[in-house]
Design goal:
The protein is mainly beta. Helix content is 9%, strand content 41%. The N and C termini lie far apart (118 Å).
Amino acid sequence: MEQIELRAQSRTVFGKKTRALRRSGIVPATLYGPRTEALSLQMAAKELNAVLHQAGTNRLISLRIDDAGKPRMILARDVQRDVITQSLLHVDLYEVVMTEKITAEIPITLIGEAPAVINKEGLLVRGIDSLHVHCLPDQLSEAIEVDLSVLEVQDQAILVKDLIVGQDIEILTSPDEVVVKVLALREEVLEPLEELEAEPAEVEVITEAREIEGEPERVVKEAEPAEDEEEETETE
């Protein structure tokens, strides 16, 4: 595997002054690790962008600081970018110990084609796109390839427990997680809705109109008393 190299310089500018660094094409960074005292670094944004594009967060990077002869083996961890411009703001670099296991994310790459999809028997649906693993730094790979040609029928799936990885790589992701699955195609027939004919609403007239001095006035008819209602008598 091709070795990825990156050069950095010790950084003496901190706080709000780092804005001037970014404007000049320099990105501040911090180096740390289980046996590393934290170091403040800076590096060219153009070079760092190219390295991050190639290495991601799961490939080892050979870092040379200032004029040091021996490089440090690192992984890019927390990469901060501007939300709008996507320009680099800050990067955390993790120095590994080659004899000690680490945890990392390895992306999953799908290769080939699923016969069930080619034959239009199902729809390919993807689940997780990376694996959480525990291994030695030099056992990290660019990606884990998953062959889709085994998916021949509907509802067939490839789970994490079906993946083949290095013998010394421990997969921390749940074995029952779905990597990819073929779902059955369903044809839905939608019946056209019948248009309802609008019927004119009936209007109940409860008032009579008469003109008084040229102005219309509505007079509500008084309800007549019921026949069985007794008239009230005045009592002295």
